[in-house]
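User: Sequence recovery, please. Input:
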């Protein structure tokens, strides 16, 4: 992930823009609305988002800008800090409206700072193992972008994949070209027969959703092909406001922008579009089958996590994401088994594309595991529910060094805090005290209270709640350093 090569200077700086929305429901239960796949440790201890932030770096590349949603803003900042990346901007969408408005917002912000700059649009949840090869390909496409072309990146296909869109080339020999090529059309995700025919023809590339163009060129494309989106997003940027190092786009104007992808809004209409082939490895990791494919199967074709065991099995993916939970498969063939602390997925590998259907069924049944995780991330740390019953709940809470919960109170519950690691500064009413490991404190119903971590190690505590209602919405906030409502 380090950028050690020293290329020749480019005529124009390239500004990576990382699109960081989406729920990744086909990778449930690891990926959920509350904590989607781009932030999870899907392949190793580095998240896909962190990989994306480190993908385009070194000489000729600026610090990345991020477009994300309000629930993820602190996760984004925390994961960037963990890899020593400083973002040039973090734009907060009031709501997800697909890629066309998101890319335009970044273009308008960048155009105000560097009108001639190039923008490299990167999804936050794709896997590109060979970073130097990708950077070299981007540089090879940069002159076309500086000349005003809209460059889309096409991946040389390795199989008849039905889960990807395709790009049709004008010349089959261009599939392995080292410069941008003419593009005939975009092709929607095909059926198996069509995918096989396209692979055999040698005239198609996978559509990666990665783009390179100047801010001026893409704004001009919106002016020609999507003026209504341009008007709405321009106003959203103009009325945007700074908030704790983030930039919040205007909510009302943003809501008037069409909910549409940049492919439909711009790319399929533009006459200055070219495609840059890339053949050094790529996956959108869009389902568990693709995770299995990228996971280095053993001699029997199995991909296993550390705490997974198989007997007489082949072609299967087994993962346990719960500490202390061992997953065992016997006599499995081409199966997916993913175990979380609160949910387990079992499916044939061939049905990986249907996992999103299961999430829809769970949502219709109001099952919390459809969208919520067992552990709940907060800007100050995280918590998980250990036990819940009639009138009580037991939580494990971890507060990061230097962080603090809001000053708050509850209408329906009292709390008993037992510190098991670190030292907490606890405020209850007018009383402020330090509470260390093996000490406890009681928070009466209705009392204003706050917990802070003034130390250099995490504070870990057990919270026992008692009361008539224990929902997370029973919080009245008086002060909050993270500007939450």
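Assistant: Recovered sequence (485 residues):
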């Amino acid at each position: 992930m380090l950028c050690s090569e020293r290329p020749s200077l480019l005529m124009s700086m390239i500004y990576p823009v990382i699109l960081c929305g989406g729920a990744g429901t086909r990778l449930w239960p690891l990926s959920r609305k509350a904590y989607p796949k781009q932030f999870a440790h899907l392949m190793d201890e580095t998240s896909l988002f962190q990989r994306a932030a480190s993908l385009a770096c070194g000489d000729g590349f600026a610090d990345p800008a991020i477009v994300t949603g309000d629930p993820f803003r602190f996760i984004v900042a925390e994961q960037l800090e963990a890899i020593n990346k400083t973002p040039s901007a973090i734009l907060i969408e009031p709501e997800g409206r697909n890629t066309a408005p998101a890319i335009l917002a970044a273009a308008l912000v960048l155009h105000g700072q560097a009108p001639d700059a190039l923008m490299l649009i990167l999804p936050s949840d794709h896997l590109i193992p060979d970073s130097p090869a990708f950077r070299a390909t981007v540089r090879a496409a940069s002159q076309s972008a500086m000349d005003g072309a809209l460059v889309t990146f096409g991946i040389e296909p390795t199989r008849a994949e039905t889960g990807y869109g395709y790009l049709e080339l004008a010349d089959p020999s261009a599939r392995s070209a080292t410069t941008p090529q003419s593009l005939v059309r975009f092709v929607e995700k095909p059926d198996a027969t069509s995918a096989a025919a396209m692979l055999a023809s040698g005239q198609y590339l996978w559509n990666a959703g990665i783009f390179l163009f100047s801010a001026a060129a893409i704004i001009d494309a919106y002016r020609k092909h999507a003026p209504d989106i341009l008007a709405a997003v321009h106003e959203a940027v103009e009325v945007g406001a700074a908030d704790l190092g983030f930039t919040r786009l205007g909510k009302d104007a943003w809501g008037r922008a069409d909910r549409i992808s940049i492919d439909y809004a711009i790319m399929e209409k533009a006459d200055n579009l070219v495609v840059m082939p890339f053949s050094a490895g790529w996956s959108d990791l869009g389902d568990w089958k693709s995770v299995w494919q990228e996971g280095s199967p053993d001699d029997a074709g199995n991909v296993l996590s550390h705490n997974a065991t198989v007997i007489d099995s082949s072609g299967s993916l087994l993962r346990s994401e719960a500490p202390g939970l061992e997953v065992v498969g016997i006599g499995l063939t081409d199966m997916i088994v993913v175990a979380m602390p609160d949910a387990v997925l079992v499916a044939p590998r061939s049905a990986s594309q249907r996992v999103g259907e299961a999430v829809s069924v769970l949502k219709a049944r109001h099952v919390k595991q459809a969208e919520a995780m067992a552990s709940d991330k907060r800007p100050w740390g995280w918590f998980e529910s250990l036990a819940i019953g009639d009138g009580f709940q037991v939580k494990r809470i971890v507060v990061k060094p230097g962080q603090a919960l809001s000053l708050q109170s509850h209408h329906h519950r009292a709390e008993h805090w037992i510190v098991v690691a670190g030292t907490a500064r606890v405020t209850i009413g007018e009383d402020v005290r330090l509470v260390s490991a093996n000490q406890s404190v009681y928070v009466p119903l209705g009392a204003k209270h706050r917990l802070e971590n003034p130390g250099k190690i995490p504070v870990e505590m057990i919270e026992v709640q008692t009361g008539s209602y224990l929902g997370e919405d029973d919080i009245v906030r008086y002060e909050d350093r993270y500007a939450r409502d």
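The radius of gyration is 25 Å.
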